[in-house]
Amino acid sequence: MELTMCGNLMKLTGKEKYFSLRKSIALEAQKNGIKPTARKFHMSKNTVRLWFRRFHSEGNDGLIDRRNGPDRILHKTSQ
Q: Which of 12, 25, 26, 38 is disulfide-compatible with 16, CB 3.0–4.6 A?
């Protein structure tokens, strides 16, 4: 199985890596369509469609990570 990565994506870390991947996917979907892009990046059509729509409506801000869970769990024990 071959994953398609664009340019220097492997050198990026953390949020930059996810943002660059999402932008590459959104631009690829704009150019070639949702289904071919989903096949190329080995992900679901719904995920590609989500990032494409966010990029189309909000620009780069739409691709920023929107996780809203806690950074840590305060009541978790050390065991």
A: 12
